[in-house]
Amino acid sequence: MADQRHLLGLLLGTEEDWPSAFETLVRRLDPALRVGGDTHRYDVERITVEPFDLRQPSRYSLVVDRLAYWYYVPREWLKKVALLDDVYLLNNPFTFQSMEKHAAYCAMIRLGLKVPETWLVPHKQPPDNPRFPYTAAKYNKPFDLREVAEKVGYPLWMKPYDGGAWVGVSRIQDEADLVRAYDESGQRLMHLQASVEGFDVFARSLSIGAETMVMKFSPDRPQHDRYSVEHDFLDAATGQEVVTIGKVVNAFFKWEFNSCETLVRGGQVHPIDYANACPDVSLTSLHYYFPWAMTSLVKWSLFCTATGRTPRVDLDTRRWYEIADSDRSYEEKLGAYRTLADGYFQQQQYDEFVSTQLGDLDAVAHDYFASREFDDLLVQTVRATFPAHEHDQFVAHYRGLLGAWVSDAAAAAT
Hints:
Elements: E1 3-11, H1 17-29, E2 32-35, E3 38-46, E4 62-65, H2 72-85, E5 88-90, H3 102-110, E6 118-121, H4 132-139, H5 145-152, E7 156-160, E8 170-172, H6 175-184, E9 190-194, E10 201-208, E11 211-217, E12 227-228, H7 236-253, E13 257-265, E14 268-273, H8 283-286, H9 290-306, H10 318-324, H11 330-344, H12 347-357, H13 361-369, H14 372-385, H15 391-413
Helix pairs in contact: 1-9, 1-13, 7-11, 10-11, 13-15, 14-15
């Protein structure tokens, strides 16, 4: 029997709340996991950005990446440790291109999911490249934006093909809105996507490894009020479909830290956004669901490292397309996709690992999120997020929501 020491790395930008919670949970749990005759122990470290030798072995067993989607130095370091050192990554840097929404739409349309009618239109302002005028004059076919919009149908949404955080998203009611939004889009490539009008529920699914939490979401509300604490807002069958769609997206692209937005109308589930290289896990957004996200991230990190889960940097699309091209019904295809997804995430092995190796985590999490230490983090986060005159209001707001989680967790444990 040997001791293995794993270093979990956090690649961060401006975030302080969830990294502090993650670090504290691992420290308080102090796991010593016995797997395969070895004992696995853990440390957590925040990664710095600096020059690196391509041949220098990595000290990390797993890295949670929240930075490289926009910062190229750490992105190239992630590629290096993926190719040379077999470091487990959340998420795989080789799929960033498909996280530009467009490829994700294409893949899920190919699988037969109910993605609304979507078109991509050329830039309003051309790329700043001296070869563009010649290329455009010879090969760019003139098009009528109004005609495209008519084919999509009003109302519709204009949104960046690579966007996030609702930046650059416009609801288009008519031709005047269309022209205005397109003129303002500049050099951004835009999608036109049909609006799912009269939907019953806007659901957002946050997936971390093998676990998914489906939350009722209102994107037009302020940050602190977008997620509603409602546990039974979908019937069982629809809820299962929403979870399956999120897991299928993630397993297809090998994403293990992602969110998926779906609109439910008349029992039909329409995925509208499901490629997020940096899904929202902030305390001030998730509030009641924040403890679930942190404990799930700890569970998946420990599972991947202790069991020697093999990192994947390649996509195996053919198995998925064989199902898509079959004559099965939509429900049968979705079931077959779910089987592939559960296999990728080793759902059965993961559940067994959590129940046998991490039995103390729920109690550790309850004690932490009920502690003065976490309350100090909550207060610090509110003060860093909201203006001074709102501090008392939002400290009370978040204390109430996190207190509700603590009470519910205690009740579930009895």
